Structure formats: C-alpha cells, structure tokens
Amino acid sequence: MKNTIRQAFTLAEVLITLGIIGIVAAMTLPGVMTDYKKKEIPVRLLKFSSTLQNAFNLATIDYGSSVNWNFPSMQNDPDQTNLFVNTYIFPYLTGLRACDADEKKCQRIAKSLYGGNGNDRMPVYIFSDGSCFGMITGGSSDLASQLHFIYDYNCLGKPNEYDKDIFTFYLRQREGKAPKLYAGNFPVLNAHSRQDFLELCKNHESTHHSGICAALIEYDGWEIRDDYPWL
User: Fold this and answer.
1) Which residues form the DUF6613 domain (predicted)?
2) What is the pLDDT of residue 71?
C-alpha cells in the first residue's frame, strides 16, 4: 500500500502569499479605478450637457426666443433659481427631482456644490442616475445673462472636488442671439487651442476656473486623455 504524503502550507507561507496578493492589488486597483473614471466621466458630462441643451431647445418651442425668458437677475436667489428651473427645465426632463432644502442630505449636497458661505440652502436637483446639479447667476444685465451649472456626476460620492467629480457648465444668453451652453466657465471664450484649454484646466484654482476642465474634456471629443491633470 502506497503512502500518500500531503504537504500543507505553513501559516507563514499563507501570510506571505496574502501579502503579495495585497501588494499587487494595491498597485493595480488605483490604475483600474482611474481608467474607469476616465471612461465614465466624459459619458456623464456629455449626457448632462445634451440633456440641458435639449430641455432649452424644447422650452424655446413653448416660450419663444430665450431673449424673452425670465432669467434670474439676482445672485444666489433660491426663488428665482427655482422659478427658472420649474419653467424651462423640469417640464422637459424625466428622472429629475428637486431636493428639499430642509433635508440635511440636501443641505450637504448644496454645501458641496456651492461651497460654504451660507449656500447650504440653495436649490439642488437630483437625476435618477445619482448625479446632481445646482445653478447660480453671474454676469447678468439687461443685455446679457449667464447661468452657471455646477454638476456632480456622483453627487455626495467622494471626492467632491472640482475637476475630479464636480464640473461646471454655463449658459450665456445675449440679446438678439440664441443662448449657447458652454462646458467650463466664461474664460474658455478666450481659449483657441488645446494648449489653451489644458492651461485653464491646470490652473483651476484661479478665479472663475473651478470645474473648467469640462471644457478640455469637450474639446478632446468628450474624452479624458493621459495628460489630464486631476485624475
């Protein structure tokens, strides 16, 4: 009768093996996550941009030229913001709801989107896919209006940082001209090359540059390239 010798791993060998697996995972998982975000973010941004533009196009059918629309005229005014959204956006979208400003969760979202300084009760709107956005007025006058949309593709999901998961768009409406939805912020109007957009993105902590990297992503054909500075 033949004896069968069974060899078992020692505890030390098991721990060493697990340690190696952990090291390999730690080295590869961040890269996998970054690659995933590079694919997910542009898709989300394009969807948001297209969704808003479609809503405005449909609103034009019902309300005529946007030069006659009631754009918010005061900065950080919840009532004017809600009136604009309820009139020109909500009726033309599905899967969108207003977040109640009295809810603690909504206040946390507002603080994340708008920053501190008492903006935690500004309106927040949440899509069924888990993304959300807020809206503020800037540069309004009788001749021009600018609405800034702050979009977070994973809402309260981390990191809640500009150009990582929070991006900006803005709608510029001028007398006698159709409104145009831009990715980023108004400094992109002076950008004429990819290098211009890249430099704006790198300097995103400058005034009016927060979330501006959406413009670079759009310029690159809704793609995040390897030289994107914030992933």
Assistant:
1) 33-229
2) 83
Instruction: Examine residue 167 and state whether it is found in any structural domain, yes or no.
Output: yes
Residue that is written with structure tokens 């991006």 in the block? 167
Q: pLDDT below 70 — which residues of the chain?
A: 1-9, 11-30, 116-118, 139-145, 174-178
Q: How many domains does the chain have?
A: 1
In-domain check, residue 23: no
- Domain assignment of residue 58, given as a range: 36-186
- Each residue of 11-49: b (16+ CB within 10 Å) or e? eeeeeeeeeeeeeeeeeeeeeeeeeebbeebbebbbebb
Sign of CA dihedral 143, 174, 93, 150: negative
pLDDT computed for residue 205 by the predictor:
83
| 3 within domain boundaries | no
Q: Which residue has the tokens 């990297």?
A: 213
Please tell me the distance from the alpha carbon of residue 49 to that of residue 15, in angstroms, as a whole number: 50
Cα-based distances in Å from 205 to 21, 175, 192, 211: 39, 31, 21, 9
pLDDT at 9: 60
Residue 20 makes CB contacts below 8 A (sequence gap 6+) with: none
Give the per-residue pLDDT at 20: 65
**Residue type (1 letter), 39:** K
Rounded Cα–Cα distance for residues 102 and 118 (Å): 14
**Tokens 């001209």, located at residue:** 177
CA atoms within 13 A on the CB side of 186: 14
- Give CA 158 to chain center in angstroms: 12
Residue 129: the pLDDT is 93
